[in-house]
Design a protein that fits this description.
Number of helices: 20
Largest sheet: 2 strands, antiparallel
Structural class: mainly alpha
CATH class of the largest domain: Mainly Alpha
Order of helices and strands: EEHHHHHHHEEHEHEHHEHHEHHHHHHH
Helix content: 55-70%
Shape: elongated
Number of domains: 3
Distance between the termini: 76 Å
CATH superfamily of the largest domain: Fumarase/aspartase (Central domain)
Radius of gyration: 30 Å
């Protein structure tokens, strides 16, 4: 161990640690979850510290030698992140606003910079964590800026996976276009649809939800860096906030801008909440679709069994041969987590007071974790579940042809009253509606053949689209 000092006194720090006294206090004060900040969040922080050093150097506020050492330290961490990640040790649940993690980054970079200049760990000469690495910054503007950048990084990884899900659902829609089945409203038999139409609608829903997520993410581009402690820009050189954003654009390749009102960016976390809410809405849609697929696959003998899911693992430790909708069940669970995480973000958002929202560490964790688990599972889900779904054509046809609701299609041909009689007779006796039409000579055979096709029963809206 080595002994370091901060403003509260002496602290014992592990001898080889790149962090220092303030980080060690946080480790001792918050031994909560064992969870550490997301790699993309750490990356965003380091890129921000790098850009700040470049801006301070350009504006003459920071000596070239010190600035270059800080930039080099940032590049060292970014270039071998797997090696240095172990030094970012602050729990995701920590002191308000994220001061502990900000100092963790400041201390690691200061120590690396000093070692490169011939100094020793823990001495902070000539580079000081507060005076130089944190120059023209406060946790209050750095932490929300890092949240925005990290979330944009993560969404860039998530949205292609969502697009792949949409494409897979669309492909199933085309594959099942000719599979006619009974529709269901109120979980009761309704007029026929095709299985393809159901899957096309799922694709449309995921496409729309993804677009809304992208739209919400656009608001994250506006950064309040340069506001420092209370959004007034105290202790920053003139022009700093625009120069630091310039360097951030270069290093992140993101279309970032300096926000108009620095006070708003620290009081309000509305852009973060908007993305969380869009992610929740996506999760709600995916939950609905996942639940539908579980219902359609229920059985195989005593459920609907209109679709067949790929078998990915044995389903029971006691019932031989049982196979469960395991991928759908896993998806449900992580979607429920995302919905719950959004509630935490919402509560954290409204807890902001006056010039600052101190609940940002919770927002950072919940949002990054939600995006992470979804982006990790989606490729497996698409490959091992959606792409392997098959239609049980015989079961679909058996249900639809025996449904009394099929009589709805007869309204324009034989009238509502006659169609109602046919429906009642079918429900009472179990006879199929085409057979009843033949038995009563209500329609010629060629007309019956024309009626009971996917094009006639479920294709009116598609025909109208083609006409347009």
């Amino acid at each position: 161990m080595r002994v370091e000092k901060d403003t509260l006194g002496e602290v014992r720090v592990p001898d080889g640690a790149l962090y220092g006294a303030q980080t060690q206090r946080a480790v001792e004060n918050y031994p909560i979850s064992g969870l550490r900040e997301h790699p993309q969040f750490i990356r965003a922080f380091i890129l921000l510290k790098r850009s700040a050093a470049q801006a301070n150097r350009e504006l003459g506020a920071l000596d070239d030698t010190l600035a270059n050492a800080i930039v080099s330290a940032c590049d060292t961490v970014l270039g071998d992140f797997a090696r240095f990640r172990a030094h970012f040790v602050v729990d995701v649940f920590q002191a308000g606003a994220g001061t502990s993690f900000n100092m963790n980054c400041n201390e690691v970079l200061a120590n690396l910079a000093n070692v490169s200049l011939g100094g020793k760990l823990g001495e902070y000469k000539p580079v000081n964590p507060n005076d130089h690495v944190n120059m023209a910054q406060s946790t209050n503007d750095v932490f929300p800026t890092a949240i925005r950048i990290a979330t944009l990084f993560l969404l860039d990884q998530l949205t292609p996976q969502l697009d792949a899900l949409t494409e897979a659902l669309d492909a199933k829609g085309a594959e099942f276009a000719d599979v006619i089945k009974s529709g269901r409203t109120h979980l009761q038999d309704a007029v026929p649809v095709t299985l393809g139409q159901e899957f096309k609608a799922y694709a449309s829903a995921t496409r729309r939800a993804t677009r809304l997520l992208r739209d919400a993410a656009n608001e994250l581009r506006f950064l309040g860096i340069g506001g420092t402690a209370a959004g007034t820009g105290i202790n920053t050189p003139i022009g700093y906030r625009f120069v630091v954003v310039k360097y951030l654009r270069e290093s992140t390749k993101l279309e970032l801008e300096a926000i108009d009102d620095l006070r708003e960016s620290m009081q309000s976390q509305l852009p973060v909440v908007a993305v969380s809410a869009a992610l929740r809405n996506l999760a709600l849609e995916l939950t609905r679709i996942t639940n539908d697929l579980r219902l359609l696959a229920s059985g195989p003998m005593t459920g609907l069994a209109e679709i067949l899911l790929p078998s990915v693992q044995p389903g029971s430790s006691i019932m031989p041969g049982k196979v469960n909708p395991s991928m759908l069940e896993c998806m449900n669970q992580l979607l429920f987590h995302i919905i719950g995480a959004d509630t935490a973000v919402a509560y954290a958002s409204q807890a902001g007071q006056l010039e600052l929202n101190v609940m940002m560490p919770l927002m950072a964790f919940e949002l990054s974790f939600s995006v992470e688990i979804l982006k990790n599972f989606l490729p497996v889900f698409v490959e091992k579940c959606i792409r392997g779904i098959e239609a049980n054509r015989e079961r679909c046809e058996a249900y639809y042809i025996s449904s009394p609701s099929l009589a709805t299609a007869l309204n324009p041909l034989i009238g509502y009253a006659a169609a109602a009689e046919i429906a009642k007779e079918s429900a009472k006796t179990g006879q199929r509606i085409p057979d009843l039409l033949r038995e009563r000579n209500l329609l010629p055979e060629e007309e019956i053949a024309r009626i009971f096709t996917p094009e006639f029963l479920a294709g009116q809206a598609d025909r109208e689209r083609k006409d347009e």
